[in-house]
């Protein structure tokens, strides 16, 4: 069963919040058929540790403001190289650019469907 509409909407909000803080290579992956713990991953990259922190903070702020949800768990904030934020329906991964390639989550979940991010696509076209 694919990701719920709620999970897709949360993923789009998280992706837009990441983009607002200049994260790059943002993708949303529907993992509902493969994982019991979450419906979707949002994966984004940042160029340095400070930016990783800013991206994560904005995602948390926007999901709270727009959907009234708080993270269940957050990991990796000490070093800000790979921060994982679990919101239940979605899990957000914000990587330092170098670490994203090393861990290769995109390749690991490459067989899963992606969730369209039309807001980001239209911004990138401009």
TrEMBL record:
GO biological process, one term: cytosolic ribosome assembly
Subcellular location, principal: cytoplasm
Any single GO CC term annotated in Swiss-Prot or TrEMBL for this entry: cytoplasm
Similarity comment: family membership: Belongs to the Iojap/RsfS family.
Protein encoded by which gene: rsfS
Subcellular location: Cytoplasm
Name listed for the protein in its UniProt record: Ribosomal silencing factor RsfS
Role this protein plays: Functions as a ribosomal silencing factor. Interacts with ribosomal protein uL14 (rplN), blocking formation of intersubunit bridge B8. Prevents association of the 30S and 50S ribosomal subunits and the formation of functional ribosomes, thus repressing translation.
Subunit (UniProt): Interacts with ribosomal protein uL14 (rplN).
InterPro entries in the cross-refs: Iojap/RsfS/C7orf30, NT_sf
MF GO annotations: ribosomal large subunit binding
Keyword tags: Cytoplasm, Repressor, Translation regulation
Domain of life: Bacteria
